[in-house]
Amino acid sequence: MKVSYNWLKEIAGIDAPVSEAAHRLTMTGLEVEGIEHIQDDCVLEVNVTPNRPDCLSIIGIARELSALYKTSLNMPPHDVIAHPGDLDFNVDILDYDLCNRYAGRIVRNVKIADSPDWMKQRLEKCGIRPINNVVDITNYVLLEFGHPLHAFDLSKVKGHRIRIASAGQISGGTGIKITTLDGVERQTPADTLLILDSENPIGIAGIMGGQDSEVDGNTKDLFIESAYFDPASIRRSSRALGLKTEASYRFERGCDIKALKKALDRAAYLMKELADGELYGKIDMYPKKFTPVSLDVKYEKVNRVLGLSLEKHQMLDCIEGLGFEIETSDKSFSVIVPAFRKDMTRDYDVIEEIARMYGYDNIPAVLPRAAVGIDSPAHMSETSSQISSEIKQALLKSGYTEALNLSFMSESDLDLLSVPQDDERRRVVKIKNPLRSEEACMRTMILPSLLINLMHNLSHGNRDVRIFESSRIFISKEADSLPDERHSVCSIYYKEKAKTLYPESANDFFVVKGIAESILKDLGLGSCSFVRSSEQFLHPGQSADIYSGAQKIGFIGALNPIVFDKLGIKASRPTLIALEFSIDTIGLCSFTQPKYRQLPKFPAIDRDVAMVMDSGFAASDLKRFVAGYSSDLIEDVYIFDVYQGQNIPEGKKSIAFSIRYRAADRTLTEQEIDSLHKSLVSHLSEKTSGQVRQ
């Protein structure tokens, strides 16, 4: 919308530089897209959003500026005195649903001529071509008040009668033809609202007048129309007829039903001043009265929503000049919404007005603490959100790529993984209207989705796949209750053996296990252990459940060869290692804070030992027994070899490990270490029922 800045300043009562006013309007939501300098004036190109039809006028935009600059709004003169006596004119509203109010005034003995230069210039700056003083006045008031008007030649209105009805009401259910002001004969649909005299249609309500009642150079007497038409009806008719006008643009967005009287009186005032018209009585049919809405707003809620600490008077000062009636109480205030602000329907709309007038650029930028999606507080605690973020970052740094899948699966996916029938992951939530059978249930595991991703990658020639997903799984509970939602992170590491110049020293299982151990260490989970897993979809000799204390927090393992066969993966010695963490369970564990100590001043002494024990003995238990030995000189222990084969009895295995000894206050002697090491080995032999390998 183009508006003259001098015109705005006149009504808003301001004298600010145009650049400053344009910036402040933009920051309140009325974006000024351009400024054109024309002689001693500036024309602003204002982008008015569809929910603010009140700003499709000079007064509407001036009201915003007046509220921003705390000035008084100078309404243009519109009080008139009419000649007394009967009008001898009738108005009948036949469709109250589509026409809620209709007002009109008769003006006699007008002199049709050119408009004064000041009016022509203002119209031209706003993009409207001047025609004559009568038509220009209706267009001028349209721009000024934002309310469309129409002037009929009174001598052409047959029967001195106006009827407002839909075309179907008059024609018995069919449309009616009418020639509009642009000289085009149009067939109106049956639901189009028309303005008719006693015989024929003389205008399409809210869109364009008819040629038969056009004001021309011979016009002496006028009937000025000011009405409120149903926005949906005008929008529908305008689209059906392919006819867009300045009037329809405003009517279909919703005009001010209470301001139409002021707009009518303003037009009559200008008719008298600029066309020497004689004013006669007014007709005002108002079958559907406007009922204002009262919105109650709590002071506390304003600050909570905006993140501010405004005083009560500051909140009220922000919206004082916007034309609201305000009633206050101790803890809240009520806003009576005027007819020109139909976009305001709840308390948040009032809070938005406070934010606009306070200034968005005055609200400090603070990053929200809430996360998006599955990490939102509705599903996770702050601790769980942090755990999920740290695990994801660790996997990304380890070369994994994050996958995003829908939270659906098929029960056949569980059959593929040989999940037992009594396993809780069999308690699926079935979807009533699945798009396809492969997505008929909510996921109880993330792994099946990642396997589908893997097969897609393999079909496209990608033979080195490292992907993970962080998402929720859904375990069904009792009938008529919501499922149990749990947050998990699952990853797969796929690799095919290939000829390489450099031999690989580490088994892929231990590569992923090292990643898992690094993650657990960074999280601060101190007492973690790896226990042989009973998951049937994992390799029995290369898998483990991960525990923190007594809590199972996940699993790691190579995929069972049986599952490989079911998937149909045909490759040379492929390896697939799955790793899963239960974020919710980890959040229940105890965390240790990192402790910093001075770098050791004295050297350490390492001792290696290999022990033969039962093949079913868990290597993690060996480390636990070492940690439980009472000595301050044992600094660390790590296992470097597990061997079964030649020279080892059947049903036994050899575990070789290294123990590091160090004292904080002195250099240890060989005698001290030999004695301590011998005692420790004896302790381990007793605990493990093993013996030192010779």
Question: Would you write up a description of this structure?
Answer:
The protein is of the alpha+beta class and 694 residues long. The protein starts with a strand and ends with a strand. Strand 24 (538-548) and strand 25 (551-559) form a beta hairpin. The strands form 8 sheets. The protein has a 7-stranded mixed β-sheet with strand order 18-21-22-26-25-24-23, with helices on both faces. Helix 4 packs across helix 5 and helix 5 (133-145) packs antiparallel against helix 9. It is built from 20 helices and 30 strands. The protein folds into 5 domains: 2-69, Phenylalanyl-tRNA Synthetase, Chain B, domain 1 (2-Layer Sandwich), CATH 3.30.56; 90-285, Phenylalanyl-tRNA Synthetase, Chain B, domain 3, CATH 3.50.40.10; 293-362, Phenylalanyl-tRNA Synthetase, Chain B, domain 1 (2-Layer Sandwich), CATH 3.30.56; 374-587, Bira Bifunctional Protein, Domain 2 (BirA Bifunctional Protein, domain 2); 605-692, Ferrodoxin-fold anticodon-binding domain (Alpha-Beta Plaits, 2-Layer Sandwich), CATH 3.30.70.380. 30% of the residues lie in helices and 27% in strands.
